Amino acid sequence: MPHAPRPAAFHIHSIAFAFPGNRDAIALRAPATDRLLSEHAEWIRQERSAPVAYVRGARPHIRVVFRRVTGPAKLTAIIGASARGKIVGVAARRVQLAFGRNGLSQPVSFRLSKRLPSTVGVRRVRWRWTGEVGDLRVPLGDSEHEICLAWRRPRPAKAWAGVNDFKNHPDWVYAPVMQWTCAWAAGRKDPKEICDAILSHLPASGLSYAKPAWDVRSMLSTGGGYCGGWYRMFQAMAAAQGVAVERRSFLVDWQSESGGRARWCAIVVGKPGINRDSVAEAPSTFHDVLRRPVKEAPVRSTTRARYRFWGVPEKLGDGHCVNFLRHSGRWYLYDACFLSRPVALPGFTLPRSNTTRAIPIGKLGAFRTRYLDQAVSYMLGSFRQEGHLYRTVHPDPGDPGFGKQPVINGLSIRTPIVPRPGELISFYWV
Amino acid sequence: MALMHAVVLEQCPESEAVLREVALYDGQLQLDASDGLPHAMSPEDALRALAVQVLAAWNPRRHRAVIRTVHRSARNDVVRRIAEERL
Description:
The complex is a heterodimer. Chain A is 13% helix and 39% strand. Chain A has six helices and 29 strands. In chain A, the strands form six sheets. In chain A, strands 17, 18, 19, 20, 21, 26, 27 and 28 form an eight-stranded mixed β-sheet that branches. In chain A, strands 24-23-22-16-29-25 form a six-stranded antiparallel β-sheet, with helices on both faces. By secondary structure, chain B is mainly alpha-helical. In chain B, 62% of the residues lie in helices and 0% in strands. The longest helix of chain B has 16 residues, at 43-58. Chain B is globular and about 40 Å long. The mean pLDDT of chain B is 88. Chains A and B meet through strand 21, strand 22 and strand 25 of A and helix 1, helix 3 and helix 5 of B.
């Protein structure tokens, strides 16, 4: 008597989302390895479930591989996947599977049953896969996925990375950056709303100020960075959502004057910065001027930790780095390090990058009143006050204690009271 | 940074040689952060930026090749811009 054919038994093995040639998917990169998550199928049964990303409203294809357990090496089945509620599933289709010696089928293309949601966000889906083989309906297993939905297609990484290390693959996003920004910007509908949401949620990244990192990848591995990293990070976050923001450094313009005076030697910030309780610099003695008129005001000496963004005499030195968004005809400043809200800048025009000519602050609209006076606590220089020259030393090789002696702060004038007529605050914008 | 300031005080062949090496240095520095690290760029880039500025101020023709190399190879776009505008 002939044996009855054994029922087919197989299950889903892996699902690839951002496979080569799939233009719907957004390529995600792992910061630890700098490799694309899609080098392997993003979901592998009992092994891997990596996040995937699309532009909101996409209706993408995926590639699925099945594993044979028993039964014939070739079969025809109608396979699809459903999800609970209104969440998108996988459209069922008739497929012919051919299992190789390793038990795996060829990759089979499926399309989602409908468009992904049309709003920015992160969706977690559980798909229940089933197959109809002849008259039999067989369960093929469940798969779970984190799907990030971006506002628009991400902007090329070169904008925030400065260089393109992946010439064959210019469009990609670091996975945590995509996950964070899709969650933070959920439901937001325009570039300003998206940037505002990113800025206000930045502390949730866990990244902090003043870790030794100055680019996006090293910030992700170090757990934070200085402003030179943060303005790239903010630009990368906006770019992940397809939003273009500018970044600029305003660098201290240290001009030496007669009689040992100099303006300005550093900008001084007293806030610890994002996700920090204290300033990451050793305390030093400051000689503060807090009241107008500046020339007659008493000097208050105090020893405390403050950040000093040092200039270099007659050269470009250090400075602060921020982002700008132009929206509805107005510029907005985003300081990811020290502020949680954007600053509207009426009358401001973004300066062109120029390393040879500093720009007087009076030419920058409301930049000083709306931003600098609030964010930068003091302007540090070398000035004569109360008959004494408060000279800044950073570092002065002519000093006998050179190499041993700490840096010396000159006179730190509270930024809002720096006299306006002839104030001579200027920065290099790069 | 203190040593850099000492180097840039006097233009001489030795100082120029040090600055050229600094400009082309491709490694990482281990620095004491207690007096603060640069904010806008890494310590290596801060030194590179200063070296390029000083070399360009001293003798732009003689150091053109170094400045051009920095312009081509710098990963930091502020350093690249500083080099570009001094070529």
